[in-house]
Amino acid sequence: MSNFYESMLNNNIGRNLLKTVGLPTPIELKRYRADQPTYFEGKVLVGASDNAALLNDIMRNLKDADASVCYQANAHTAAAIVAAAETNGVKALGVEVSKNMTDKFDAFVFDASGFAQASDLDQLYTFFSPVMRKLNSNGRVITLGRPHLKASSGEQAAAMRALEGFSRSVAKEIGKKSATSQAIFVEQDAEANLDAAFRFVISAKSAYVDGQVITVRKAEQVSYPDWHKPLAGKVALVTGASRGIGESIARTLARDGAQVLGLDIPPAEADLNRVMAEIGGDALLGDISSAEAPQQISDKLKAMGGADIVVHNAGITRDKTLANMPEHWWQMTIDINLAAEERINHALFEHGTLNKGGRIICVSSMNGIAGQVGQTNYAASKAGVIGYVQYMADELAANNITINAVAPGFIETAMTDAIPFMTREVGRRLNSLSQGGKPVDVAETIAFFANPAASGVSGNVVRVCGQSLVGA
């Protein structure tokens, strides 16, 4: 948020004035802090469908958190929840649920993996309706199921796909609390690969990720690394690393233990050198769209022991309506935002520069999903990034390489600060959390994709937008 809006929120007179003129007064988002001992602290209410299959995996993760685990004592699946808790050494407390209950919770987790038909959706109402008012600010709602396109019947596919609409709607209902709701779909036999996705969405690292769906596929199992240094020993390339979102990505990956190679164009040399010096990274100057860039990048990474993480962040905008757009603006935008990424990846694959278990993360955009006036070139390039990611996920799976994308929404940067005041203020509010995000929110999502334990997370496109009201 801008300094003006923050100053208004930080005093009673300002908050009352904002309410009077009809502007929202959002609750500040709680983000990751290095002094937090674990990925989650708080009270969790766990629920489950009939024949739920993910309870053991949920409890395995909660065991490693500072969580007080509760369940609805009168639920007909209570025994299954208790059994899963005991199997994993988790103490679970039964609570009597009613709309007059005094208990409050920091997270609701519901395992809907057993849904087989539309009537099973009643179990969502039974679990959630009595407790929705009992979710604390900055709380989390997580609904787990199976991918609907891999269902055993049309009825099951419908029930699983319904979870997405449910989760997105819940996100809109709880956004005023700065609370979020996500759905995780876990493929059959991919249960052991759940950990990275579950820990990310329940943690403060996902503060500005809301109303999203993450699919977990079967892959090589990697034990969850240290929460604060999950990328220790990894080499990461970040393009466009000198400022804004790229700078935050570089700083966050370095914070998590990675050795960062930051790349940017020669005019950004001073800023790039400053950032890399501050994080102990290496700097590389170049234009990613040049003919020599793929080989130059590959050679540098080879000298560093190969790449474990590649973040395609560099990009440009050249905005005009299609009727008024110069041809070279169109070509330049497509080349830098899309084709250059493909050429660089091809060189890394061809020369064996990307190490086994490598992670490729591409920065798309909300406008690549929803479109925007004057951005036919930019939206086409960013939609192309999504298509590339979704196709390449299967191609790369045999080499244990994952590829995913983030699609930022309204992120507070020097670029957004240049937007006219009223336009900027309206833009901030057009999401369920009623506030803009920060570059670190994009960086945290990229760091999640880069996590060694996210081996089963590939082909995903996660919007970092506070559940923008525009787009899918």
Helix content: 25-40%
pLDDT averaged over residues: 94
Provide the gyration radius in Å.
22 Å
User: In CATH's first tier, which class of the largest domain applies?
Assistant: Alpha Beta
Gross morphology is globular
Describe the main β-sheet briefly. 7 strands, parallel
**Through-space gap between termini:** 24 Å
**Whole-number total of structural domains:** 2
Descriptive report:
Keywords: Oxidoreductase. Belongs to the short-chain dehydrogenases/reductases (SDR) family. The chain folds into 2 domains: 41-216, NAD(P)-binding Rossmann-like Domain (Rossmann fold, 3-Layer(aba) Sandwich); 235-464, Rossmann fold, CATH 3.40.50.720. It has 16 helices and 14 strands. It has helices spanning 3-9, 12-20, 55-63, 78-87, 122-128, 154-174, 195-202, 244-255, 269-279, 293-303, 327-350, 366-370, 376-397, 414-417, 421-429, 439-450, and strands at 41-48, 66-72, 92-95, 105-111, 135-145, 180-186, 212-216, 235-239, 259-264, 282-285, 307-312, 354-363, 402-408, 461-464. The longest helix is centred in the last third of the chain and has 24 residues, at 327-350. It is globular, with a radius of gyration of 22 Å. 49% of the residues are buried.
